Amino acid sequence: MLSQKIIISIGLIFLTHCFGKSNKETHRLEHEARIADKMVVDHADLLRTNQGFRNLTRAGVPQKRVVGVISAVSATFGLLKGIADNVDFSRVCVIGFKNLGNRKLVDPTWYLSYGIIREALPRYLPAGEAGVFTFEKTGYSTAGTAGVLTYTVAGTNHQIAVYWSVPFFYGINYNELHVQVWSGAKANEALYNSMEADEEKLTVSNSGHWLSASGWGITVHAAMTNAAKASLLVEVEFNITTPNEIFG
């Protein structure tokens, strides 16, 4: 009987290794990222149907590089991919950072190991809003874009940290993603190296696009497409209250 249980356990481990974990198969963001990998964006339709995309254009003309704030409802993989399509460099990571909590996200910091961003990140993201950030490779360099950014939950010392890497050479390298919840952290080389080396970091592939993290009442879900012009969607959820907020 014991030997049968051992055989069954080994079989389940083998199937999990071959086909991926079930939570990655069923999570909504995993599903949406896989669809986005095969999506062909109709920019005219996106301009007509997505208010956030329209708000990020200039008089209806899509911009090549976008940094802005829109309604969280409008921040979809379709919107991110539509923005990435317009960038005239071959390696891009467009990040949608959705604040689904009950406080502002403030005090952004960022560190880039490779690549550039043309504008500063928005100083704060109101509850129910999303930041959209375009990171790209540098000019004629043979490196892609890789970095880390943080936002702090207002009134706390807790940060949401996002790491990404979009390599220049595919085949030996792949897109990478990591999210963590920190206390007292700031985006710098040390944080970048820590998240890059962490074994929980996700190598984006057909077997997984999504991961999550939580701490101090904050939950972060993120998913990334498996493309040279990558879309990375982050959802931050929390409901933080103080005794004064509860009792007045």
Q: Quick gist of this model?
A:
The protein has one domain (24-247): Sandwich (Mutm (Fpg) Protein, Chain: A, domain 2), CATH 2.60.270.20. It has eight helices and twelve strands. It has helices at residues 2-19, 22-26, 28-38, 43-49, 51-55, 77-85, 189-197, 243-247; strands spanning 67-71, 92-99, 105-114, 124-125, 129-136, 145-153, 158-166, 176-183, 202-203, 210-215, 218-224, 229-238.
Written description of the protein model:
GO terms for molecular function: channel activity. Pfam families: Anemone_cytotox. Residues 1-20 form the signal peptide. The protein is an alpha+beta fold and 248 residues long. It has one domain (24-247): Cytolysin/lectin (Mutm (Fpg) Protein, Chain: A, domain 2, Sandwich), CATH 2.60.270. The chain is 28% helix and 34% strand. It is built from 8 helices and 12 strands. Strands 1-5-2-12-11-10 form a 6-stranded mixed beta sheet. Strands 4-3-6-7-8-9 form a 6-stranded antiparallel beta sheet, covered by helices on one side. The protein is globular, with a radius of gyration of 19 Å. The model is unreliable at 4-24 (pLDDT under 50).
Major β-sheet strand ordering: 1-5-2-12-11-10
List how many beta strands DSSP finds: 12
Q: Specify the CATH homologous superfamily.
A: Cytolysin/lectin
N-to-C series of helices and strands: HHHHHEHEEEEEEEHEEEEH
Low confidence ranges: 4-24
Domain unit count:
1
Using the 3D structure, state the CATH architecture.
Answer: Sandwich
The CATH C-level class name: Mainly Beta
Q: Based on helices, strands and strand pairing, what is the structural class?
A: alpha+beta
Overall pLDDT score: 87
Distance between the termini: 61 Å
